Amino acid sequence: MDTLIQPRVLKGFRDFLPAAEIERDNLIEKLTAMFRSFGFVPIDTPVLEYTDILLRKSNGETEKQVFRFEDNGGRNVAMRFDLTVPFARFTAEHKDELYFPFKRYHIAKVWRGEKPQAGRYREFVQCDFDTVGSNSAASDFEILNLMKAALGAIGVTDITVHINHRGIFNRFLAKIGISEKSEDVLRSVDKLSKAGRDNVSQELTEITGSSDTAAAILSYIAGGTDFNSTLSIIENMAGGPAEDTQRMRDIHAMMEAAGIAGTYVLDPSITRGLDYYTGVVYETFLNNLPSIGSVCSGGRYDNLAGLYIKEKIPGVGASIGLDRLIAGLEQLNLTAQKGSYLDAEIYCLDEKNAIAYQKTAAAFRALGIAVEVFPDAKKINQQYTVTDAKNIPWGIMINNENITAETVTLKNLSTRELYEDLTVAQAAAKIKS
Amino acid sequence: MDTLIQPRVLKGFRDFLPAAEIERDNLIEKLTAMFRSFGFVPIDTPVLEYTDILLRKSNGETEKQVFRFEDNGGRNVAMRFDLTVPFARFTAEHKDELYFPFKRYHIAKVWRGEKPQAGRYREFVQCDFDTVGSNSAASDFEILNLMKAALGAIGVTDITVHINHRGIFNRFLAKIGISEKSEDVLRSVDKLSKAGRDNVSQELTEITGSSDTAAAILSYIAGGTDFNSTLSIIENMAGGPAEDTQRMRDIHAMMEAAGIAGTYVLDPSITRGLDYYTGVVYETFLNNLPSIGSVCSGGRYDNLAGLYIKEKIPGVGASIGLDRLIAGLEQLNLTAQKGSYLDAEIYCLDEKNAIAYQKTAAAFRALGIAVEVFPDAKKINQQYTVTDAKNIPWGIMINNENITAETVTLKNLSTRELYEDLTVAQAAAKIKS
C-alpha cells in the first residue's frame, strides 16, 4: 500500500468550512445586490495573465510578491495580484465593445506571496467597483454613496469615510516649492496613523530638508473642525479656489442632498500612497474598531489604461477588503453563524420507508420548503446531532401510521414542541409562519 | 514615453463582458439556490495546492496539463485542475470538524493547459455537488434528483440522464473471465458514442483477445427496451440478483415515487472512464442537442480520501460543466441577454441639477427601484445609446419645473410612451407594475 500523504494547505492559504463560507457568500450576495441596484455590472477576467501585462507598472515589492512562472508553452505568466491592473487591460482591449461611462464590479480572488501574519493571507478576495469614462463630480459622489450603501447592506453602518483630494495637496506642495518630492511626501503622510506624528515629522524634515516645511505640511494635514472649515483652510494653503476645491464642494452638496453627509470627513492626511490617484481619495474606518485600518478605500485616477492605449480614460473606484472586513465583523460579533440553508430535516426512522420520505420531501419542496432526507437509519440521537450542527429549525418524523394517513409529525428543534398528524400543507404553513 | 503594451489574454483564457458574465452569474445563482434547498452547503479551498497533494493519483495526461511551478519559497505548487481532489484533501483534513453525511457544493474555476479548441478552455468553471459519509440508495437518488432539479431551475428541462452501475458491469466482466482487463474495457466502452460500435468492437476484440467476448460485451451494453427489462437483462448476464441490482431497483422506486422516473434511462454503456467510481454512474444529455456531450456527470465512489487517511469515506456526486452547458443553451437560444440590473436611468439634462438628480435617485432607491444617474450632460441621444445598450426599461427626466413641483417625467424606453408630472411614489408604482 502507498504511504499516506499528509493533507495540508500551503502557508497563507485557507480552507473555508461551511459556516465560514456561508458567511462570506452572504456578505458577497448583499454587496452584489447593492452594486447592481446602483447600475454596476459584473465582468470577469482570467486569473492568469501575461507577466508583462500585470507587472509593467508595478514596483519592486509587488514583483517579489507575485506568483509567476513559465507555462508549458514557454510563456511568462503570473497570477493577478489585484483587480485594477486586469481591469485596465480589459478596458483597453474591449473599449469598442463597452458603453461609457462604464460601471463594473468584480469580486474575485487575488494572490500575493506576502509574509503570512494575522489577517494577511496569500489568497484573498477583493470587491472592486469603478466607474470609468466620466470625470464628473456625480461619479465621485456615486462611488462614495455606494460605499456607504454597500457596507450598510451588510450591517456595517457605524463607519466614517475619510476623504481628501490629491490635486489640492499637490497645489499646496507646489506652492511651498517641493513638487518634485510629492510622491515621497505622500507616502510619508500616508503612514501618519501607523507611524505617529513625530516619526512622520522627522521623515518629512529629511525628505524636504527643512523642519519648517515639515511643520507646514503637518499643519496642512491637521485641517479644521468640520468639512467646510477644513476645506477653507486647505484651499487657502493651496493658493485659493480652483476646480479641485469646487469639486469637493459639489460632492459635499450631493452628500447633503442625499442625507448622508455626516458619514464623510474631509481629512487632508489621507493620501493613499499609490501614485496613480489624481483626484479624490478615501478610506473607510469602523467607528468601533478603527485599529484594523481601512475596510474600503479608493479614489479617482485620470488615466486608467495608459500602459496599453493612447486614449486617456478617467475613472473613480473603490475596493472593499473582504477578509479584513470579516475579521472586523467577527471582533464586533456582527457575523451570523449559519450551518445550512435548510428549513427542515426528514429523519430516517426506518430505511424501508425511504420511498415515502422522498415523496414527502418532493411535496414539501413543491411548497417552497427547503428540506433534506436523512439518508441512513442511524440512531435518532446521532441524527439529531447532525441537524443541531447544521442549525436546522424543524424536524419531520414519518412513521407507518403517518404514511397511511398521509400526515407527518413536525418538531420545533429549538423548543422541542411537537405538532402531530399534520398534512404536508399544514406543516409547510407552520414552518413558514 | 514608454511604448504601449498590446492588451491581450493568454490563449485558452477569456474575458467575460457584462452580458456574458450576467448570464453566467444568473445560472450560478439559480443552481446555488437549488443546491441549498436540498441541504447542500458551500465550501472553498485554495486555488494553489502542494503538487504532491493534487497529482499523486493523476495519470500522465493530467500531469502534462496542470499549471505547476516552484513558488518563491521553493515549494512545488500547482493550480487545481478539478474540484474533486481538493475536496478529498479537504475532507481528510477536516473530518473531525465536519458532520456526516456531509453534503457540499463548490462552484469555482479550475485550470488545465489543454490544447484550446472549440468549447475547450484552459480556465473554466466547475459546479460540483457531493454527499460523503453515506452509502445509502437515498444518497444516490438525492444526487440524481438534484441534477434534474438544478438543471430545471435554469430552464434545462428537456434532458435524459443515462445511469448505470459499475458493480453490475464488473460482475459481468468477472463472469466472462476478463476482470483483470476491466479498466481497459470500461475505457473502451466509454468511447462508444464518439468512436462508434464498429471501432469499439474492434478495440474490445484486441483488449480481450476474442471477438466472441467483444460481442458479449456489446450485447450487454445494448440493454433492453426500458428500465426494468434492461435491469433484468444485465442482472442475468452478471450472474443474478445482488446488492448492486437491488440498489438500482431501490433508486428506480424512489424516482417513481417522486414522479421523475421518465427522465432516467438505464444505459449499460455508460461507464465514466475514471477508475475511482465503484457504484452508480451517470451522464446527462440535452435531448435537443445530444451532440455536445454530457452536461452533468458523476457517480458513486467508495473511498474518497484514501490517499490521505486510512478511513474509507464513501460518497456520491455529480458535476455540471457550466461552460459546455452555456454553449448548449446559446445554440438552443435559451440564454437571456441582459445588459444591466437597472429598472431606470435618470438622464442628465443639466449638470447644474446634479444634486436634484441624486436626491431623486435616493428617493427611488428607498422605494426599491434600482436606478442610476447619468453622470455627464452629454447630448440626450448619446445618453439614450448607453441606456439602450444596457436594456434599461425606464427613463426618468427631471427639468427645472419638475424640481420645483417635486415631480418627474417617466418614459417607457421600449414603447417611448411618456408619463408626465408623476411624484416619485407614482413613478415607482408605475415601474413596478
Structure description:
The structure is a homodimer of 433-residue chains. Helices cover 42% and strands 19% of the residues of chain A. With 433 residues, chain A is α+β, with helices and mostly antiparallel strands. Chain A folds into two domains: 18-331, BirA Bifunctional Protein, domain 2; 344-432, Anticodon-binding domain (Rossmann fold). In chain A, helix 5 (137-153) crosses helix 12 (243-257) and helix 7 runs antiparallel to helix 9. The N and C termini of chain A lie far apart (56 Å). The model of chain A has no long low-confidence stretch (mean pLDDT 93). Chains A and B meet through helix 1, strand 1, strand 2, helix 4 and strand 5 of A and helix 1, strand 1, strand 2, helix 4 and strand 5 of B.
Offer a quick outline of the entry:
Two copies of one chain form a homodimer. Chain A is of the alpha+beta class and 433 residues long. The first copy, chain A, has 17 helices and 16 strands.
Find the CATH topology of the largest domain in chain A: BirA Bifunctional Protein, domain 2
Number of folding domains of chain A? Answer: 2
Query: For the residues shown, what is the average pLDDT of chain A?
Result: 93
**Order of strands in the sheet with the most strands of chain A?**
1-5-6-11-10-9-7-8
Task: Give the second-level CATH assignment, the architecture of the largest domain in chain A.
Answer: 2-Layer Sandwich
Largest interface: chains, residues each: A-B, 110 and 110 residues
Helix content of chain A: 40-55%
Q: What CATH first level of the largest domain in chain A would be assigned?
A: Alpha Beta
Radius of gyration of chain A: 28 Å
Structural class of chain A: alpha+beta
Tell me the distance between the termini of chain A: 56 Å
Q: What percent of residues of chain A are in strands?
A: 15-25%
Q: Please count the helical segments of chain A.
A: 17
Task: Note the overall shape of chain A.
Answer: elongated
